[in-house]
Amino acid sequence: MAAVLAIAAHDLRRRLRDRTALMMAFVAPFALASIMGLAFGSGGGRALVRVAIVDLQQSETSAAYVDAIVRSASLGPDVGITRTGDATRAHRLYSEGRVSAAITLAPDAVQRATAGGLPFTLVESSRTRPLGKAVVDALVASARLQQVTTQVVANALSQEGLRGSRLGEALTTALRADPVLSLGDAKVRKEQSPLGYFAPSMAIVFLFLSVGAAANSVLAERATGTMVRMQAAPVGSSAVVAGKTCSIVGLMLFSVLSLWAATSLVFKAHWGSPPAVLVLSI
Asked: Edge-to-edge, what's the strand order for the sheet holding 49-55?
């Protein structure tokens, strides 16, 4: 075992002095991953999918109602909501691909919800934009849930004799409270991050390109005659091969882990569960 470690340490020192090996193991993977990160975005520091919600009523109560729907859907930080009072602008954003879906609330959305009806007049989504469709489905389900809550709250407030503006103010206060029920985990997962896919791919590509260096090193030792000298020592051929394999495995493992750390810190890329990434890298 001591011979294997000695050979591995010696071979690793030689590789670290080789600029080509350092380029292949560290510089090139990070350079290509950086290009991907700049081209596609990190996916960790900003919303991965954006949905437009049109509030035609533009009142304090309707704004509180939209807040309640979004909060109850538990969309998480990876979903961005663009609010507007202009249905034409929302349609243009959807047509241009700047939002993945658009939902238009009726001018009397809150009144519809308190009466037991759905508040939406138009929902624009497509199966070709699956993330946007998933968010819309969560918002529609949340609206159905909020519809029941709003109806119960409105009935309770009416029984207390509240009418007109006083009922609207009380309903707004109730909608801004924490939801009693929510849909749970309807989040868009960070694993959808483009760089979270491309960075490991770059690591694997250069791992394939570099892993043959172990075999080349054995052939180089034979060509220079140092293999014969090592075999003359009390070291078997298996120890030589094991030592050289350990050196290349150690270098490439460090390459993958350093690329993981660099892309996570610089571009906020999400590779997945850290223990799983570590086990898979090994």
From this structure: 79-84, 49-55, 101-105, 120-124
